[in-house]
Amino acid sequence: MRTAFFAGQLRNPSSHRFLRGLALTEHPWLRFSTPASKTPHDHAAKPGSAGVPAPMSKFYSPAASPNEGDDVILSNMMITSYVRSGDLDAALGVFRNMSVRTTVTWNSILAGYSKLRGRLRDAQEVFVKIPQPDTVSYNTMLACYVNSSDMEAALGFFNRIPRKDATSWNTMITGLARNQRMEEAGKLFSAMPSRNVVTWNAMISGYVECGELDRAVKLFETAPVKSVVAWTAVITGHMKLGRIETAEKLFWEMPEKNLVTWNTMISGYVENSRAEAGVKLFKKMMAGGVGPNPSTLSSVLLGCSELSALQLGKQVHQLVCKSPLHIDTTAGTSLISMYCKCGALEDAKKLFVEMPRRDLVTWNAMISGYAQHGAGELALSLFDRMRKAGISPDGITFVAVLLACNHAGLLDLGTGYFNSMRKDYGVEPKPDHYSCMVDLLSRAGKLDEAVDLIKKSPFKPHPAIYGTLLGACRIHKNTKIAEFAAKNLLDLDPGSAAAYVQLANVYAAMNKWKDVARVRQLMNRSNLVKTPGYSWIDVKNKVHEFRSGDRIHPDLGSIHEKLNELEEKMKLAGYVPDLECALHDVGETEKKQLLLRHSEKLAIAYGLMKLPPGVPIRVFKNLRICADCHRAAKCISEIEKREIIVRDTTRFHHFKDGSCSCRDYW
């Protein structure tokens, strides 16, 4: 009856509070009326005696009186419960007060150490003191070696196990696979006397993680039993290689799916630029009664960000609020990131303030959000708050900080942060940090300094660095460095149409039309095609896409009428088209018409036509917004009394009352 009562308490959700209180009291039910026997080990080793390692001395207490022996079964249950909840200290407290310990007792403590990294020595000291270790003892100690990633010691211990069972083999094979030592794992797999589903799962998953998908598939096809883990691993491998159709076929053929499988497909779609398919699958998953976890929401919200689907993102937010995930830090951080990337900075800020707990990723998401929206001062202020809160920055934090300085034109401050990374914070600058610094210098017109930094960088330059330099050369009209950047960009990426296009744009901005023609001829000879510029806007949960000079949209006639109307109003307000942005050798009238039909202007006009008054117009563009569209958007925001938010490839622009959040520095 006594043990049954406590077993019921252990299953109770509040059992750990019950146990902790019990461990601190002397309950009469814990006493026997007969003397308790002790293991030989208890007689041989007393606290502080020779041969007992110092770290272990806390496990021992003076022998209890004959009338105060422990209920071994109950104590073992308590230890197991504490270990499962991750409270090893409480488990050790029970262990220390036990006068009778069985092998199960020792194994439970050993299992507690196996869950903690950096406690291998403690685990070893426990293991050598077990009076009669059984196979479970050996397997648990093996898990301690594996979890500490000491694979040489693990292999040596594995070979010394007197009686290996399936768990012994599986633990060793899994450890080798997780450490990408598949050749050794394969040898053990072949030597294993009897394999089970865990063995096959470990090998298949290991090959996938090592990028050896063909071997994983071959093993999967020969597996006698294909578990959901094996199916999911193979699907993951295909998604990583962009083999979406094969992954889809396997997914729908699976006899059963778990949440991890659904997450694999959804994240795979998003990572392979198929966000719309990922969102659709998420809806199907929910309709089938499968509930999401933080990983699901992270992928779906990333998909919403890529699609700029703010309304769908808000629906996911509502779903989170109605579930236990509303207090989950990962889910909250994913929502902050989604709001920032969809242009709803105030919603992100509100959510950040209301979050009960924030980790480093949360702070990084909000700092990055401010930086992307050009709120450099707010980003840097938040960075200072983070440091004062005792949160140490990492490399991602500094990318956001440098981006904030970049968009705000804070050259000296950004340089100071870059130089302090290693010295003050122990964070090694990576290629992304050098890219940010090159961008910061280039935008400020320090093109020679930017080139020097590229040459001094310890990393091989990424093509994006030269693309950044090229873009700045157009603004500052520097053909010499533009040609240097284009040459290096083409050396790194011969198939880059962007190198030719940006170099031609530099020449066009300086009216060097012969050079423009020469570059375009070189591009044609290389069979390269320019990425067309397009913009899109979400109206009533439907995405409308526009290309420059669009001739497809069904409402094009009405859009052109709206643009013509806006053009007249803008002229009266003092707007003059920036003809340098018309990168074609044509007359002035034709240039004005080309500029008026740019994709972002078409999208803005459509938003004015279809969205209710007072609702911000959010436009997204796949290229950098041109200077003329930037000038026009400022003017339209004042004329129409409407906030216009444009996200291009580098940042957000908030146009309101004739001004832009970038302060014309972008």
Automatic annotation (TrEMBL):
Pfam families: DYW_deaminase, E_motif, PPR, PPR_1, PPR_2
Domain DYW: from-to ranges: 574-666
Keyword annotations: Repeat
Superkingdom of this protein's organism: Eukaryota
GO MF annotations, alphabetized: RNA binding; zinc ion binding
NCBIfam families in the cross-refs: PPR
Name of the featured protein: DYW domain-containing protein
